[in-house]
Amino acid sequence: MPDFRSLLGAAYEWVDERLGLKPIVEHAMEKRVPEHKHSFWYYWGGICLFLFLVQVLTGVLLMVYYRPGPDAYDSVRQITYEIQFGWLIRSLHAWSANLMIFAVFVHMFSVFFMKAYRNPREFGWWTGLGLLGLCMVFGFSGYLLPMDELAFFATRVGLAIPETIPGMSHIISAVLRGGPEVSSATLQRFFALHVVVLPALFAPLLGIHLWLVQKHGNAMPPSEEAKPLAERKSVLFFPNFALRDMAVWLVVLNVLALLAVFSPWQLDAQADALKSAPVGIHPEWYFMSQFEALKLLGRVITGTLGEIVGIGMFTLALVMWALVPLFDTRTAGGRRARQTTYFGLLILIALIALTIIGYLEVA
Amino acid sequence: MNYPIWDVPILGSGLVIAMIAIFHVFVSHFAVGGGFYLPMTETLALSKGRKDWMVILKKHAKFFLILTGVFGALTGVGIWFAIGNASPEGTSTLIHYWVFAWGIEWVVFLVELSSIAAYYYLWNRVSDSLHLQLGWFYGVTAWLSLFLINGILTFMLTPSQAWLEAAGSGQETFAFWSAFFNPTFWPSLLVRTLICISMAGVFALVSASRINGEQQPELKTEMTLWARRWLLPAFILLPVAMFWYLSEVPPAQRALLSLGVSTVGPGLFTVLTRLALVFIISSFATVAAVYLFTSQRNAPGFGLGSALTVAAMAYLTIGSMEMLREMLRKPYVISQHMFSNGVRKSAVASINQQGYLATTIWVRPEERARWAAADEAAAHGAPRVPDPVRGELIFRGECMACHTMDGYRSMRKLMKGRDSKGISNMLNVLHDYREDSPYRVFMPPLVGTQAEVEALADYLTVKVAEKPAK
Amino acid sequence: MSEAPQDSGQESSISRRVFVRTGIAAAGACYAAALGYPIYQYLAAAAQKAEVEASVKEVVLNDVDKLPAPAALMFKFSGRPAMLIRHADGSWTALSAVCTHLGCTVQFDPGKDLITCACHGGVYNPNTGANISGPPPKPLTLFNVVVNQGKAVISRA
After folding, report:
1. Which candidate in A57, A81, A83 is best for mutational testing of the C interface (most C CBs within 10 A)?
2. Is ipTM beyond 0.85?
3. Do C157 and C141 touch, CB atoms closer than 8 A?
4. I need a labelling partner for B158 at 20 to 30 A (CA). Which of A213, A292, B416, B435 fits?
């Protein structure tokens, strides 16, 4: 039997002579992951990455049979009901999308409460927020692609919201919607967005985000930082934590498979612009809180003013959220740290409550 | 319809059996696998003089005794309770035929439970060699209990030609051995034994995870690495064993597996494919996750959370395997002999002539008279009066074994959008039971007189109209 | 797997290790195949469908009496382009419309009563499919056609 180890070693030497990999590899092999009672949350960034990879793989497979344009509905119908295991690929893609956004929120909030946005990790926070935004647009654009009733009306309602801002209507019509109504033109743009533009933006941003994590290492929560160096425990990333990461990925794959197999995505009737919107139409759960907040605000401040105030409040909250690392710095006193934590709890509870209320209202 | 119908809302009686039985398999297979794990580990510990291993093993044995002795036994009896209520005709047939096998089984249980109690409570009170012998004795009797139930369970899917020929003649016991050692007996025994060995490992990992890795890292590493090896036999041999099992399953049943390959629309019988997919993925993921969680120097940090996650995945694997096995057997509860709703294949012709409700004892004389009058009138050309009450009785007797109205396999959802003509047409397809009927793969024939079929259509039409399609 | 201290007998454990490792590799391969199977079937679905279509033995076209004479109707036979020609004298010809030169789809010119290929100027006889002029090396494949009460049944010759 050939000695694979020495063959591999020789290959490594050959490549390293030309690319200078050794310092990078050695640095990676030194990387350690802190071990403490909150270490569980370190897995979530990896879970987001895994789900993204599932999205890429299943997305490419779907593109083999998906036909953007007037044939879109029929192509999705064929994928779901005619092509071997098409239902599985589609269901994996749809479920993974939902799980990924969920994982991104868990990841973001765990980073927030562990205060991992502090110096030197501010850019990690900002790239992360950028990635979250891109994920939401991925979700919104992908949702339209089957062109069934649900997709059509959800998109119509979704695009109508920013339209209330004066001046936006023309831009939305011209650029996003491709006309006064959601149509095949909208579909083609959303497809280009979903399949080319967003991935082209996402990939480098993700690359920077991951590089920053490698550069700065995993952050420790303040309680752990308070401990003396001798008491702090850590494990090597390669191979120990990486292997555990793989195990967690397998568990997530299992959960995903379970969801895709027992609750496969079906297809509604084909979109018909002349039909009235079904009662209780609502966006997917990750937009539900904003949707519901606007609805509730609209009862207090009616009309366009209500919408503008609502959108304005979101924007303000988002800006505050982004600026948290500049407010709650490492050198700031305990008061700022506490205030930030309360702010985070407020936002988290508000998001959950609004989502639940939203669903109760449409039930 | 000799027995009252067990109406379980939302879940349906079948799912009650499933929930109890899957938990039972989860625990009982640990009971058998652990029966070998305990004495083998003890042998290893004694040969190396490792007292620290024995301390952990004793704790594991206590965990074992309580889990299997209490929950295993409880859920085992729970299965009796559930199947007796859900499928009394089927259970009655099994009892009539297998009563001696079960008698032996209960003797084995008695011995099994006594020996595990002795094994635990006599720890450190008898000699090492006697203690070991008790452990092995327990292991063998535990495996025997699996051996016996395996015969009865596999009989339900492949009763063997000899038994089928003797069924109903009163001479069935002459086919006892053919029926016991039926075509799927040996592959199923292999599959289950492999699962038992795996479950021993899964639960041993739970015990190992509770060792304090900071205080006793070497001990924890050794026990974790020893426990995880128990997952390997199944990992390596299950593909072969499942292949063997499926090759012995009748081809018509096996064909059900491919129904979900190209489509997953509601109302189509694609659940088998989906279960198979879950089974493959979760059985692989369970083993792979274990090896990843405990690889390199990760073992001392292997926590209870990870161990329970693995146990959950093993539960999923077992659940999907058991549901797969059950679904393969549809529409029968005893293949080629008795359908899931208790109707015997041999009785179909006579029931179609006499009527399904004709032989039931749970009908009041006034109702029977009313139907007779209605049938008389219809025979003389009078317009048919819809009779949803009669139809409801047919539904309860023939359909509720597998369908609920609004929950699992919702009848209302399946009939959504159909009017009385559409429902009547579909029921007649079920009643005619032709070779090319798409329902034949999974459903029994709808038996009864034409008047009863129409009455059922009346009932279902009323139900569908109550909650119109959105 | 580094549990050597627990193995009794180093020599047997080495070959046992090889056995176990081979077993794991084999099982792993089985699992990989089982997991890859849905993806393979998904990708192969289109080709399988094409194969089914290609095995089509005959095609029925309705309402062909509505076709003026002379004119041609394009249709698909076994997934490939084909042509049904109603000649001025009332006779029918069915033939493959795939040019034998480089595979372009040919067309019928009723004015000149010729089949021509726009790609490189090939010319065929509309009654026999014979290649008359231009680059095509072989004639177009003829099909059997029976027309009855407006229905044309086309099958392989």
Report:
1. A83
2. no
3. yes
4. B435
